[in-house]
Specification:
heterodimer; A: alpha+beta; 3-stranded antiparallel beta sheet; 28% helix; B: mainly alpha; 13 helices; 0% strand
Chain lengths: 262, 335
């Protein structure tokens, strides 16, 4: 008290200044953090599966044991999304391998993986491609897209293409117009063998969550670190580029614009 | 092969032209900043002037190519205006590159204007005033333009190198390759243009005549620099192949397209290595060594003087072609 009575005004002033300064710093920190959060992805902690427990993340599980390669999903996608001639959003690859009599043929339906760490979103120069915060789907804002196709190069799955009609980058959007109304995507709806399961992979009560938890599942090109949300049961990773000498492998992509898998 | 190329000649031309312009400005700025005072000062200013005149235009033409290659060209400004804060945190190299292009075009144009001979153009007191202004801001502009030009040259490679899904592009040496190539093509453009400008003695007002020993000495230095850059580029190409060969993954698979038997082997080994690098290096090296070893005055035939820079420019274009196309026809292996 004695110290305070010596110079109470200056002490009060000091405290006031300190509190104001602290408040200012705190505000700046919050604002900066909010700004950063708004600028980067809406949920920065979705990097691993532990962090996204409470977040809705739509995904797909494709049970390749049930796939018969009928291309009904390819046709349904084409019709549903009005995809122009010459390009495809979704297709089924035929993988043939072995020499008679030990041969095999498997099918690999391909669609956008709606990755949790998407390369396409990182390279988009305008922010046209983004992850929807409500369901984790990767979509393209056609009001912003300039059609530079940088995203098409960045995608390790070769999912993106230039729509020849709209002249924007285009890809599978998991039928957001259907799933936002509670329906399943067109390819899931039409699948003859019920090989495709759609749902929230983070919801413990969903069918897809249970199937992923109870079965040996794998994703495509896991080493790229993109954390895809399309899972496969019984995935055959045979590729023409990685076959061993003397092995016969033939991959037919049935992709309209390219015979390449990427 | 052609059907799934998403980036083609406009992008290849852009990468080449941006490298050329950035290289010319970088060489010009370095000459302005580091040229020694003395009898060659005037000559150095002339070289710097040529580089400054050459620089901005190819970048602008290349940017126009880039814009018209977009799916929606009239939306090109979205690159700069889509969202201000997003831009500040945007990791996309294309976004950063579009800012580099914008700044480069502005500063390189201002820099080029400092070299305009206002005294003879305007005359009188106004001419003197503009001339003094130009000389005053020339060095500060060079200080800004050299890092910008280097950033442009590096960005053209980072644009490609930032995508892991293209193994041929996704290498840590690509920026070095493109930067060295940009400098050597920029220098070649300067050498080529100065031959045309000084073909007749006194064709440009105030120019040093061809008979002037200063001209020969400066040309000797320019050509030496170019041969050194060619050697550096060969070393970097060696590093590029070494990097791909030391890995057992998609990069190794992708580089097979450039090696003998690959789809782009002819374009690479004939277009880039033989025509673009080895032939000019040997021919120019012969005339350089004649001066350096035997002590002859530096003199070379008109045909060689014109064809060697053109070969290097062609090699630079072919390098971009091979990298851009090769990256797209290969991809990650496995599934």
């Amino acid at each position: 008290m004695n110290d305070g009575s010596d110079n109470p005004v200056s002490r009060r002033k000091f405290l006031k200044t300190v509190s104001q300064g602290t408040a200012a710093v705190a505000t700046a920190g919050v604002a900066g953090g909010a700004m950063h959060a708004a600028a980067t992805k809406p949920s920065a902690d979705t990097g691993n599966n532990n962090g996204k427990k409470n977040k809705v993340q739509y995904g797909m599980l494709i049970d390749l044991r049930r796939c018969i390669g009928c291309q009904a999903c390819t046709v349904a996608c084409k019709a549903e999304a009005d995809v122009p001639m010459g390009v495809s959003r979704s297709w089924v690859e035929y993988v043939e391998k072995g020499l008679y009599p030990n041969t095999g043929r498997s099918f690999l339906p391909r669609l956008c993986n709606h990755c949790s760490e998407p390369h396409c979103v990182r390279v988009c120069p305008t922010g046209a491609t983004y992850e929807r915060p409500q369901d984790g789907l990767i979509v393209i804002d056609q009001g912003v897209c300039i059609g530079c196709l940088y995203c098409a190069h960045a995608c390790p799955y070769g999912m993106r293409f230039l729509n020849p009609v709209t002249r924007f980058a285009d890809k599978c959007d998991m039928c957001i117009h259907r799933v936002s109304k509670g329906l399943v995507p067109a390819c899931v709806n039409t699948c003859q063998g019920r090989a495709r399961i759609f749902g929230d992979v983070n919801d413990p009560n969903s069918e897809i969550h249970k199937l992923i938890a109870r079965n040996p599942v794998s994703v495509i090109r896991e080493t790229y670190g993109t954390q895809p949300n399309v899972y496969y049961i019984g995935l055959d990773t045979t590729d023409e580029n990685t076959k061993k000498p003397g092995q016969y492998v033939r991959v037919t992509t049935n992709k309209a614009n390219s015979p390449k898998r990427t | 092969m052609e059907q799934h190329l998403m980036w083609h000649w406009p992008i290849i031309g852009y990468l080449f032209l941006a490298g050329l312009g950035a290289g010319a400005i970088a060489v010009s700025g370095i000459v302005v900043l580091w040229a020694p005072a003395g009898e060659f000062r005037h000559r150095a200013t002339l070289i710097a002037r040529l580089g400054a005149y050459i620089g901005p235009l190819p970048v602008m033409v290349g940017t126009a190519l880039l814009i018209f290659e977009l799916g929606r060209p009239y939306r090109a400004l979205n690159l700069l205006t889509s969202n201000f804060w997003f831009m500040a945190f945007n990791p996309s190299p294309m976004n950063w590159g579009s800012w580099f292009i914008l700044l480069f075009c502005i500063f390189a144009t201002v820099y080029a204007f400092t070299f305009v001979p206002w005294r003879t153009l305007l005359g009188g007191e106004r001419g003197e005033r503009w001339e003094a202004r130009g000389e005053r801001i020339r060095s500060p502009m060079a200080v800004i333009c050299v890092p910008l030009a280097i950033a442009m040259a590096i960005y053209t490679a980072i644009l490609l190198a930032a995508v892991p899904a293209r193994p041929l592009w996704h290498t840590p040496v690509l920026w070095l390759l493109f930067t060295v190539s940009a400098l050597s093509t920029g220098l070649s453009a300067i050498i080529l243009v100065q031959r045309f400008m000084f073909r007749k003695p006194g064709a440009v007002r105030g120019a040093v005549r061809r008979e002037d020993p200063a001209f020969r000495v400066s040309e000797y230095y320019l050509v030496s620099m170019k041969v050194l850059l060619i050697i550096a580029e060969l070393v970097v190409i060696g590093l590029f192949f070494m990097f791909a060969h030391m890995t057992i993954n998609s990069a190794n698979f992708a580089v097979q397209t450039l090696l003998p038997g690959g789809e782009l082997a002819t374009a690479f080994w004939v277009g880039v290595i033989l025509v673009g690098l080895l032939m000019p290096a040997f021919i120019e090296g012969f005339y350089l060594l004649r001066t350096a070893v035997l002590g002859h005055e530096f003199e070379w035939p008109y045909v060689i003087n014109v064809s060697a820079p053109i070969a290097i420019l062609f090699g630079g274009l072919m390098l971009r072609y091979v990298i851009v196309v090769g990256g797209q026809i290969t991809g990650p292996i496995g599934i």
